[in-house]
Predict the 3D structure of the following.
Amino acid sequence: EVQLVESGGGLVQAGGSLRLSCVASGFRFENVAIGWFRQAPGKEREGVACFGNKDGSTYYVNSVKGRFTVSTDKAENTAYLQMNNLEPEDTAVYYCAADSLYLDRSEGYGCHVLFQYEYWGQGTQVTVSS
């Protein structure tokens, strides 16, 4: 059974930090890109960042560049999203997702949050107070 389980969300003041975790099972973690997405109330889901396990590629949306860092631990089948200097605008439910075809989709250019991700977690709430 394929599973992605996020954790690490919570309530934090503006300027604070959180680290989200995403534990994967049921597929070959080392072959996928892990994407992080978020959805705020009343807004469309937004791709935030991704990490390609096969090639080490990364992508960040402009609004989080310099504040968020993606990484994975292949030995633990776990992906992380380190979020620093959080802003109230970062408040959302955060999801991780897996894309096993990212290198084919990108013709070798690496992961991207606009690709179609096959597997999704259930989400974790992040709330940033001002």
User: Anything to note?
Assistant: Residues 102-106 form the longest helix (5 residues).
